[in-house]
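Two records follow; treat each independently.
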Amino acid sequence: MVRARGHGAGGQPRPDGGHRMRRPAFRVVLLAALLVLAGGPVAGCGIQETAVIEAGSPAVADLLPPREGRVLLFFFSPANELLPVPRTVDSPWPNGVAGSVGPDDSSARPDESHRRDGVGGSPPVSGEMSESRPPIAAVTALLAGPDKAERRAGFRSAPSLPRAASVADRIVTRGRTVDVELRLRVTRLTAPARDQLVCTAAYAAHAQGAVSVSLVGQEGRLAPAECPVRPVPVPAR
């Protein structure tokens, strides 16, 4: 289960005042949206294949975790909560870089100049490392922005996160450390934009997001960070 801590796009905790009466209705809408984005209800998928995403309490949806063809992209909800959104991605291109995944973003694919070692680095260090698409696929998809269905559901990126899939250069994994190399000045990214990148890369590299992620840009690198959205054990049914 992945619990969103409820920080808004401005990086500050959301005040409860003025929102309590609207939360039940919002949860119903968000539940429907997430289930549609996930491809329909996932009841009967099995306990080990189920992750529960919570926006406060109670849980709003049961979603499959990252696996073959599926990644979790982190966008901000209409309530300014950083939430994982499931997305099915295209197969990696022959040059080793996955294509942009949004059905309406076919023009946002990275250029063909990427090297075959675009995901680079050391092999996974444990059985918990993700077996989904390479992390570069998830980060490229995130930078392409929400697709039409996600935008209709109200999901969005932080304003300082550029909507350009070509910004993603490559990702290097070294044990429990992931370097996300980007063609931009990472120091200009706000904290919410950094969280989107860190969380998307972390959960693409590790099933529980248990890695440290460094954002590397044209002017240097940022200190390693962990995703603020942490998994919570799913209770037996």
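The next record belongs to a different protein.
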Amino acid sequence: MVLYQVFYHVSFLVTALIHIWFNNLINTLIMLVVTCLSNPRQPIFQSILRLHSVVLVCFVLAFCFDTVSAQPQQTALKGGYQVLNFDEIDTPDGFGNITNPYKGFVFTDFYAFKPSHSSFDGIISSYDLNCAVSKPNALYGAANDDLWNSKQDYEATQRERPSIYPHNPSETFTVHALKIKPLNMPVGFVTINLRGLRSHNPGDIMSWSVDFPAGFHDVLDVQVETFTGKTWMGLTRLEIWADFHFDNIKMEDWEFCLDDIELELGLDAQTSGDLVGQTVFSSGMQLQV
């Protein structure tokens, strides 16, 4: 962090000097100073006052530039908005338990994990190390296969799917974005599903899914409002799960990873009605169908 601060300030100074030199501001400033002090017809006090005015203008301009320039710790996060990356969670054997609550949320059937941990050598493909977008950790999720019925239809009770919900039951939240991908999937295709539940109307469910065809993939940056066409506000629970399909084989508890979840506590829903959508993810393109 100290080296970053030093690098930032040196870069800031060099950039400022380049702009000053390129615009010939140094000569201009010297001319102003000489003009302020070299007029013999004016009292020395008046010359100093004029010079002070020039310095004051320079100070104000510098202050304004410093205020609007990018600061290394500057953030636009307000209220309950936060990005969860799980990187501070200890993962001694590759996995780590998420405290309850974690940043105001409860995570069920999710675990923090470090894809690059030595215990995963030969287990996790090198193509899946990108799960941890913000290193070193990400979230590992998989539905509990004991909760599927004999017809392979999912019993839609609240606790059957990996889910995220506020620790305070009186609060709702908004999901803005997340980064997600299936794990270890060289054949067939996997469908990752998002389902948002809202308290003001139990029948008002927001749903969206994305298909990942055969092969390994980069992490998909899901901008929820852009991808679904609506703002997922007023949620009491967000469920996420993955289905694997290959010929006649179907597995409803496929593993997936999740990182950099952008959530915001305390916003109520302003839209209603079911929202169902699907995206096919192929060759770096998202096709809304």
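Discussion point: The first strand starts at residue 80 and ends at 84. How would you locate this feature using only the token line?
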